[in-house]
Amino acid sequence: MKCSIGESFQSGSIAPFGNLELSPCCTLLNYGQGLFEGLKAYRKEDGKVQLFRPEQNALRMQTGAERLCMPSPSVEQFLHAVKQTVIANKRWVPPPGRGSMYIRPLLMGMGPALGLGPSPNYMFLVFASPVGDYYDKGGKSMNLLVEDKHRRASPGGTGSIKTVANYSPVLNAQARAKAQGFSDVLFLDAATGKYIEEVSACNIFIVKDKVISTPETAGTILPGITRKSIIQLALMLGYKVEERLIPVEELLDADEVFCTGTAVVVTPVSSVTHQGRRVEYKQSQGETPVNKKLCKTLTGIQMGRIDDKMGWMVQVD
Ligand code: PMP
């Protein structure tokens, strides 16, 4: 879909995957006027395909667009484009238990602006690809390195939106961590460097004495849709959940640590390393970890095995 500022988005069409034509002066390339979203379509046992909370992605894109001075598609337009993309690629949605279809909506400034300013026109597009598990190596758990050198987001910045510009500053830290054998990096807050914030592309939770805590989003952390859903499910399952500042020391002292996100769903963290100190999280014998219970409930809803009481799932056909 295309639009100019002050105009609404014109309806687009399904096209084969291919390259785009961009002006070298476009604001996406020059000033980072770009946003993306990520969501998944799941195939149920009966063959039908459903989306997980897609309207939440549409709303998050609207918030981000406002921050970056961009127009955004309406929730209806967003949902229509996502559904049409999934329907056109339905045969590629993997069968239950074999993965899902990852959907990537993009909103970008296409028009030229040589001096700093917003683009005169925009494009919204959606592409999709079948995916398996994000962390398919190492027994589906993550070993994290707490990043000391770089910060991901600063107060008043863009950490809480899904702008393309948030991701390249993460790559250097991630590459250093991966070179040392870690699965990913955990970022600390920019203001003090004392509190945990989030991993490159997922939110973090800790569990201590059965109480679940996660950093409050407070403008520097992406308000993950999985994060929000896990908080709701945990409360329904009777857990106490706290959204607050979490010092690194508490992370190192936790009983359990796990990450949430569209890609990772709910993935346990097996170890965290901070300033050379490595902490391994061991589960007590015979007890099902909190993250496993939450993961089972969430994936049960997504795959249509558990009744969707919250009305989260949206059928595409
Ligand atoms: N934080 C960051 C930086 C992310 O890129 C993502 C992935 N979108 C998340 C958290 C998790 O968000 P969600 O649950 O909506 O996928």
UniProtKB/TrEMBL annotation:
The keyword Chloroplast does not apply. The keyword Amino-acid biosynthesis applies. Its EC number is 2.6.1.42. It comes from the Eukaryota. Gene3D superfamilies: 3.30.470.10, D-amino Acid Aminotransferase, subunit A, domain 2 (3.20.10.10). Keywords: Amino-acid biosynthesis, Aminotransferase, Branched-chain amino acid biosynthesis, Pyridoxal phosphate, Transferase. PROSITE patterns: AA_TRANSFER_CLASS_4 (PS00770). GO terms for biological process: amino acid biosynthetic process; branched-chain amino acid biosynthetic process. GO terms for cellular component: cytoplasm. Belongs to the class-IV pyridoxal-phosphate-dependent aminotransferase family. This is Branched-chain-amino-acid aminotransferase. It comes from Trapa incisa.
